[in-house]
Design brief:
The chain is of the alpha/beta class and about 190 residues long. It has a single domain (about 5-190), classed as 3-Layer(aba) Sandwich (Rossmann fold), CATH 3.40.50.1000. Helix content is about 35%, strand content about 15%. It has 6 helices and 8 strands. The protein has a 6-stranded parallel sheet, with helices on both faces. It is globular, with a radius of gyration of 16 Å.
Length: about 190
């Protein structure tokens, strides 16, 4: 059985600008979490097609000391609640909470689940009977695409292919099978137009 693996930040929800550090990052509290346009419709399309959807996301904020586990769990519950309210759902959620340079030693480490490694995908496949070669990974970065390729999945990069990503993609040999502007259009590729 095929599945669709989704990254979270940049695919389901927008990244949040952290003015203190001058970077875009994951939401750090539930009030910052919202869905991007087309997400609910894309997930609904895949739900109707009977394709299991699994979130597979690196979330090193706890390891880096940026967010508490309690706040992280609140964001996750809000995501699930918002999706249900909009008539769609995820079939599974797999997070990698580790980071090699984490300040919280419980989550410090170079694990097999942190993308670009494929551990999150292979674990989900083993636990649920998914055929990775038939499955898709949808992500917004090269680490997502690389993890999908290592697992044997077809890959879809969401967003526009930026010049720096193009150059790095060519350099690493990490090229997505498809590029889509958002999750809805990626779902159309997977379901044949919905």
């Amino acid at each position: 059985m095929k599945a669709v693996f989704l990254d979270r930040d940049g695919v389901l929800n927008p990244l949040i600008y952290d003015a203190e550090h001058g970077v875009y990052d994951s939401p750090l509290n539930p009030d910052q979490f919202s869905l991007m346009p087309g997400v609910a419709e894309g997930i609904q399309m895949m739900n109707r097609a009977g394709i299991p959807i699994v979130l597979a996301s690196n979330q090193p904020g706890i390891a880096k000391g940026k967010i508490s586990k309690a706040l992280f769990d609140q964001i996750d519950r809000k995501m699930q609640r918002v999706l249900r309210k909009l008539g769609c759902y995820l079939d599974g959620v797999y997070y990698c909470l580790h980071h090699p340079e984490g300040v919280d030693e419980r989550y410090r480490g170079d694990c097999s689940c942190r993308k670009p490694k494929s551990g999150l995908l292979t674990k989900a496949a083993e636990e649920n009977g998914f055929e990775l070669e038939e499955s898709f990974l949808i992500g917004d970065g090269l680490t997502d695409i690389e993890a999908g390729l290592k697992a044997g999945c077809k890959t879809i990069l969401v967003g526009t292919e930026k010049c720096d990503i193009c150059r790095k993609s060519a350099e690493l040999g990490v090229k997505p099978d498809y590029i889509a502007p958002n999750l809805y259009e990626a779902a159309r590729v997977i379901t044949g137009g919905g």
